[in-house]
Design the sequence.
């Protein structure tokens, strides 16, 4: 067994929309409030881009597509994916994100679930939603809610929308 720890990698999809009649200031992004008892009652830095981990045998775009469907409960919309690159979070996880312009009703989400022992040490396993709600926010509001390591993707999305300086990528199909 190697003494080197395998780095954890996640991939995600950040949906954005421009509400009708709005200019750049009207840009909104779809983010997810993390589920489970640790995040309950928290708002600041308790939201995430829909994403999840993947292993060495899965392509990041395929993982982003799979994770979006698992967390939102329906397939990612069709359209052109824009690569927003990678960012390393404080815990060491590397996150790769794409953006996609699309409009979904956040209220229609049916998130997947996970099981964990709760309360810790009780021996009782309980199911919790991976995500307990989705919402559309302007980038400034989203930045206040997102975990710190993912805020960079909002800046990169703004760069794309304002000047196209982020390169389009192949879609996740």
Sequence:
């Amino acid at each position: 067994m190697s003494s080197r720890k395998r780095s954890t990698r996640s991939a995600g999809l950040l949906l954005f929309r421009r509400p009708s009649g709005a200019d750049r200031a009207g840009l909104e992004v779809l983010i997810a409030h993390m589920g489970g008892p640790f995040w309950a009652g928290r708002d600041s830095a308790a939201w995430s881009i829909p994403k999840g981990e993947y292993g060495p045998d899965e392509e990041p775009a395929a993982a982003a597509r799979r994770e979006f469907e698992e967390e939102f409960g329906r397939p990612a919309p069709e359209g052109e994916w824009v690569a927003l690159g990678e960012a390393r979070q404080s815990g060491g996880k590397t996150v790769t994100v794409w953006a996609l312009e699309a409009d979904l009703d956040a209220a229609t989400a049916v998130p997947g679930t996970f099981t964990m022992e709760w309360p810790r040490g009780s021996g009782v396993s309980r199911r919790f939603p991976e995500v307990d709600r989705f919402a559309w926010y302007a980038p400034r509001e989203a930045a206040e809610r997102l975990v710190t390591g993912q805020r960079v993707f909002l800046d990169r999305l703004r760069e794309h929308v304002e000047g196209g300086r982020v390169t389009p990528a192949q879609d996740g199909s």
Remarks:
- The first strand starts at residue 9 and ends at 17.
- The two ends are 35 Å apart (CA to CA).
- Residues 60-72 form the longest helix (13 residues).
